[in-house]
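We close this part of the discussion by returning to an individual protein. The amino acid sequence and the backbone structure tokens for this protein are reproduced below:
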Amino acid sequence: MPITQAFYTGVTGLSVMGESMSVVANNLANANAKGFKYDRVEFDDLMSLDLNTMGGQVQIGRGARLSDIRTMHTQGGLSVTERLTDLAIQGNGFFVLKDPASASQEGSDLAFTRVGSFNFDKDGYITDKKGIRLQGYDVTPGGGLSTKLDDIKIVTNNLAPVATKKITLNVNLDSRADYVEEEFDVTRPSETSNFESTVNIFDSHGSKHSVTTYFRRVKMDEGLGWEWHALVDGEEVTDADGEKYKEIATGKLTFNSSGMLLTEEQTFSSANFRNEAQPDQQIEFDFGQNIMTEEGTGMGASSSIASSSNTIFHSQNGYEAGNIKSLIIDLGGKIKGYYTNGMERVLGAFSLATFENVDGLRKAGENTYYSTFDSGAPKIGLAETGTRGSIYASSLEESNVDIAAQFVEMIRTQRGFQANSRSITTTDSMVEEVVNMKR
């Protein structure tokens, strides 16, 4: 092997050390860039030169070359911000962006990033700093999430009112109460009943009305029997005929010897509220799962035991109109709106993409990536499903660059460059000695 071959071996060392220093410098330059993932240089040795010796064949190395610059997709720390649309991913996944103007070489117009600094544009779409729209799932007319990936647009319109269709009452009716011999009298409801419970309901305009349900113990051949009558203020309906109260629903409850709800029956329901509200509003009264037809166990249902009559729980499914009050983003990436009427609604959801081989992603600049044949197709879905991570609102992921580790790498690279330069100067001295042999 000629002595001069050592020159070229040293040159390869200088080359890879120079490239390694460029990577270290780039890592340090982006140490404070949100979502940046540092690179690692990997080297291979060059094909060796085979020599025949008395001891057999030997090989002499020919130097080194850069084999790969691998992006290390490890988790960066999360920092808290004051903006709701600052998002950070804890775990696997990338945010999905759609930019038709800069499609990747693979023909896809989707880009992927861990940088979650997003904004609302003038049309309500969520975009990055360049105006590229974030992808996710809209809400269907039924209130569920669509399965079609689309631009995320948050509609913050007022929430329309919903008329009450069902009232749930969980009451205990004192089994020690006396029977009321007199028939129930709408004009004297308190005097002709044993117990009363009031709940607010809403008509089709979202106007609130108080419904008072009066319970009256009645005689039965077996078990305990109670009638119930639901009344509203006569001035709030169109068909009260001048009476103070108007009955809008009635029925009967029966309990077994243990005081558990055996059957429930509703014989009538009709409410006609004023101000052009929807006429003949039907309201279902539910007192819990009864034993006879709903296979109840008595747990969580109305009862009739030797304890003071009281309302344990009541609810209804109507509400008045509401204005958006606040937005939150949960760990699953769902965007939820809270309204002034106390209601909560899902307004959309972010999507995350994962890949079989993240090392196969191609960098597109600005901490975004494109998918390639080597990375595999993106697997897109909701956060916290599959292997996808969680989304933290009002947070940003920091760079995963360890400055101390990069300084150590810088020192190693500098010393490697220095050592390779010494191999060249030493080889030069050897060549000089050979030349001087002629003297």
Q: What stands out?
A: The chain has three domains: 5-74+400-436, 82-134+339-397, 166-316. Residues 10 and 420 are 5 Å apart (CA to CA). The first helix runs from residue 5 to 29. The mean pLDDT is 89.
